[in-house]
User: Fold FkbM family methyltransferase from Rufibacter quisquiliarum.
Amino acid sequence: MKLLLHYLKAYRLILFRQHACPRGALLWAYTRLLVQAHWAGKRGSRHSGTQSILLFGKRLYFTSYIFLLYQFEEIFVLDCYRAKTAGEKRFIVDGGSHIGVSVLFFITAYPTASVLAFEPDPQAFHLLQLFVQQNKLHQVQLVNAALAATAGTVSFYAHEELGRLDAGTFTASAQTVALTVPTVQLSTYLTQPVDVLKLDIEGAEVPVIAELVASQKISDIGELVLEFHPAINGEPAPFLSLLEQEGFQATSTTSADLYENTTDYLLHFTRR
Assistant:
């Protein structure tokens, strides 16, 4: 019953809230995902290696229906990355693309935009690369590296269960495996104005933004949406102040409309 109520809440959000993606296509994609996820569950194949599903006319590759469904709800149903400013989007930077659900959102919501996507996890990047190559997404450029304040290498703590979304450079635990991955500075990739910069990089958001400010590339960013991690970065007040000094104003959102007892929240910054 609790699961049914959750799905009903999701359908209500799709039907009665404004979304960046067409409502009919969103409704069909969510229904298709639910049906296939529960059918796979009945067959006992929710975790059975690489699988694929057709969503919004694109084939997406994944290993877990459970985590794919969570990502789809967060990104598409809650519409968490929808731009708050009007106008055509030409260039979007996606930091922390994982298997490509956020990339799918951006190319669906903003079909004229090119996307620069960063993902350090080798397993996730393999599926992200497969998604881009198989769908011939020539407007998407991929970088297999972690965003950081300096270029080099860093220990990245990945999960054997690929669908987990909290892998990162600050998330060591008994359930993770340490890998060495390359790091890059975002500023070195910004050669044109960025309409939307999205960061979901598990605690590295503060040093990455600080590097953009130090390099003065922050002036190229029109709009910024990120997941802030207070357990890693502390209270957000200094971070908010830094971006306010650069001409941004902030709003915050949570996933409480769909999930109970959530502590995650997004910070969305637009130019004043």
User: Anything to note?
Assistant: The chain has a mean pLDDT of 91.
